[in-house]
Amino acid sequence: MSTQNAPLTEAATSHLVRLKVNELDVQVHYNDCGAGAETVVMLHGSGPGATGWANFHRNVDAFVGAGYRVVLMDCLGWGKSDPIVCTGSRSDLNAQTLKALLDVLKLDKVHIVGNSMGGMTVMSYAAHNPDMFGERVRGVALVATSSGGAGAVPPRTVATTWFWSTVARTEWVPRGTTGAQVTTSKPGAPCARAPSQAALRERYLL
Predict the structure, then answer these.
(1) d(CA 75, CA 98)
(2) Based on the structure, what is the number of domains in the chain?
(3) What's the pTM?
(4) Is the dihedral of CA 41, 47, 50, 56 positive or negative?
């Protein structure tokens, strides 16, 4: 872990770690800044030259100054992380890499910021690890992102419906109701534990 007195430069905060991501043994790069009981994890977009540092270095000082540890992960194929040919879901691969990094760094109180592709990574992480929200994951911020577009990703799953209804502070319309979305939670309200999949199927139009 970096200390709050260390210079917050890319080189001074740069780290490499070997991770087991499914059957892959890969090296992943991340920047580790500051110290604190809770960590802000930032996930970059997919543009040319994108990295955690390139996307978010202007935001690091503010979070470190507020007492947070900040971790910027380079997704596989970007920055100093290993190159890779992704033949499946890029969002799922990124989410699996994120989970492996959180496990290795033993981060159990995190707030995740996802920009563009990074936001899609957060949604995939939520779909596969819904019980982590409200426990390990204390909050999220999605920036300029989407679920991937028609035909690019599977239909909305039960877990991602829960993600949008609880973590993203919106609720989908209950059965028998017309209309689009309605806002139901106050900003800053704590995340609820994920309900059972059966309860979600009964309550929401999927």
Answers:
(1) 8
(2) 2
(3) 0.72
(4) negative
Domain identity same for 149 and 205 = no
Q: Tens of pLDDT along 151-181?
A: 444 444 444 444 544 444 433 333 443 333 3
**Same-domain check for residues 125 and 177:** no
Question: In the structure encoding, which two tokens stand for residue 58, read together?
Answer: 């202007």
Assigned token pair, 100: 């492996």
Provide the 3-class DSSP secondary structure of residue 40.
strand
Task: Measure the CA–CA gap between 107 and 39, rounded to whole angstroms.
Answer: 7
Name the CA dihedral angle for 186, 187, 193, 195, rounded to a multiple of 10 degrees: 50
Structure-token match 């999220």, residue found: 140
Angle between helices 117-128 and 90-104 (to 10 degrees): 70
**Residue ranges making up the domain that contains 53:** 1-154
